[in-house]
Design goal:
261 residues, alpha+beta, 434 Repressor (Amino-terminal Domain), Beta-Lactamase, 2 domains, 5-stranded antiparallel beta sheet, 5 strands, 13% strand
């Protein structure tokens, strides 16, 4: 009954009659009436179309899917909950996080946005891999695998590499498209560091990491935290995340502040 009430509420809020919504979805008014009366269970396709045609808020999509007993949104649905609202929240988070580095990357670990401090950090650590064209997305997995990438400047590269490899392996279970790139990362890391990169002391579900980067300005120490935006119902295998870097000593904080003016 909760699902029926949610769907009826979505239609009423959009100002549409049952007939108007039925026409837009290409079904009969009788079927719409049956769904709203909890006498018929909508298909997954109809459920998504219903919410799209009523301009429902992003968080409602996964909530409705779970009520109906369906899997959460995936890439094949071509629907991204929390896209505009969460983009706004993420951009505000990156702005407020200045002068410290902040990134946003998608479920495939490709950077979608970064603040000025993050771009400065990339230039300090791996200038050869810095984006050079507008809209170019830095591949975070490739940046870990590259001998000129993140791990080339990090203290304890085996420990850090093992932790991130374990996290990516855990994520690929719900994001199978990651598997070929994670396989390539594992091969690259084993060639550089041996089999120790397969043994992480950190739980793969941990989403923070303390690290020290060696730069021309001296060592920079950070605690890196990954965080998701939106309501809990928005989170699935397609969700983007913010990665916020926090200086962990006064020297690092001073260097970052000076660089950002």
């Amino acid at each position: 009954m909760e699902l029926a009430q949610l769907l009826k509420g979505a239609r009423v809020s959009s100002g549409q009659s049952q007939l108007a919504l039925a026409v837009r979805m290409g079904v009969s008014q009788r079927h719409v009436n049956f769904v709203e009366g909890a006498r018929s269970r909508p298909s997954r396709v109809l459920l998504l179309d219903w919410l799209a045609q009523t301009d429902s808020p992003p968080s409602m999509f996964n909530a409705a899917l779970r009520m109906a007993g369906y899997a959460a949104l995936s890439d094949t649905d071509h629907v991204t909950p929390c896209e505009s609202g969460c983009d706004t929240a993420v951009l505000r988070a990156l702005d407020l996080h200045m002068p410290n580095p902040g990134f946003v990357f998608d479920a495939d670990w490709r950077v979608m946005r970064f603040n000025a401090s993050a771009l400065w950090l990339i230039d300090q650590v791996m200038p050869d891999l810095a984006p050079t064209t507008p809209g170019e997305r830095l591949d975070m997995i490739a940046a870990l695998a590259s001998p000129r990438g993140w791990l080339s400047r990090v203290h304890r590269p085996v420990e850090v590499g093992a932790a991130l490899l374990a996290q990516l392996r855990a994520e690929q279970w719900s994001r199978p498209a990651l598997a070929p790139r994670v396989d390539a990362l594992e091969t690259a890391l084993r060639e550089r560091f041996g089999d120790d990169v397969l043994r992480s002391s950190r739980a793969p579900t941990t989403t923070y990491l303390d690290l020290v980067l060696e730069t021309d300005l001296g060592p920079l120490s950070f605690s890196v935290l990954q965080s998701w935006t939106g309501l809990p119902t928005d989170q699935d295998a397609t969700s983007s995340r913010a990665e916020l870097w926090f200086p962990t000593d006064d020297g690092t904080a001073a260097v970052v502040r000076e660089a950002m003016g």
